[in-house]
Specification:
The structure is a homotrimer. Chain A has 3 helices and 8 strands, in the order E-E-H-E-E-H-H-E-E-E-E. Chain A is an alpha+beta fold. At the A-C interface, strand 3, strand 4, helix 2 and strand 5 of A face strand 1, strand 3, helix 3 and strand 8 of C.
């Protein structure tokens, strides 16, 4: 079976956000999948999806500090007419990626004990972000 | 249905290149897919595939400058017998990745408004690069 | 057909390791797939999976040196109670990713001539790591 839907995320401030529950609660159809996959695809070029620690908020803030330091707003960018945070956001989006593929077994995604789904919001005012979720598998 | 084919890209100079049209025009079979996925897999270790802005050329040149600066040719690399651009190319390939998975609906890939497919050519003389494209879905 | 299994990797020291044989030898079921995909999903947040050069060991040691230099243990991290190598490991895991999707044709993964599967072990004592392997395709 194949099932595809749009998940519209609520607007978030710049930084990394744990969105496991916001995403999975939008996919009740997953319970029908015995063995399969969930594909999450973010339709943006200045935000990202990644998997990381699902518990301690300081991991997310340390991650944000790392990226602010290594991909600084004050770079010598040609592409600057959308604001100082725009070109760094494009770079972070490519470094982290915008797509996750998660294995499904017996209706649930097989995340590790400490794995959570993170949204990287790399713009100061990014607005609501959109994910295309595609489920497939044996029902 | 499953459909797999080789896409041979034209040789490109070092830097980031928008290849959306070059790739998608090689896949007329996609129009038969109602709901599905397109997997693009680059068979190389010194180039990359990523999604990013599809319009302004300065985004691609700023991206290239960022990677030339943070993964410099003049690193203190042991692996240097293939040229100063070789080891940095391997690093960029792993940072950016060589594989993209794109959702398909009604015969078209669901890229966001600003998303395009980029080839990162990280060698000075990389030659023509090869992608394995795998289509699957409901027809 | 769908086939899913757990691959338990042997414990490895910090650094990058070529695990192509360790992974593929655990998947004899792949020979039954005519056209399809192999998904490898690492259930951890302080290690990574990537594709890179399958021959020269210095590529793996240069890669490790690059990441030790650019994501240093001596960062100014808030999240430090699991050791100085922990937060850098989380950052490297997101930079490199934990998931690979490989095309299959006639029972074999279509890796390029120089491509191998690498485990990035980013902890000093990471323990044995676990991969969820999901095979699908036409048999």
């Amino acid at each position: 079976m194949w099932h595809q839907k749009i998940i519209q995320l609520k607007e978030k401030r710049r930084g990394f956000h744990l969105i496991t529950d916001e995403v999975l609660s939008a996919l009740p159809e997953m319970t029908a999948v015995n063995v399969g996959q969930l594909h999450l695809f973010l339709q943006h070029t200045s935000a990202s999806l990644t998997l990381n620690e699902n518990c301690d908020q300081t991991v997310r803030s340390d991650m944000e500090q790392y990226f602010l330091r290594t991909v600084p707003d004050k770079g010598d960018y040609q592409h600057d007419y959308e604001g100082a945070d725009d070109m760094p956001a494009h770079i972070k989006s490519s470094l982290l990626g915008v797509s996750l593929l998660l294995p499904i077994s017996q209706g649930r995604v097989l995340l590790g004990t400490w794995q959570g789904i993170w949204l990287g919001e790399h713009r100061i005012h990014g607005g609501g972000r959109r994910i295309i979720a595609t489920l497939q598998g044996n029902s």
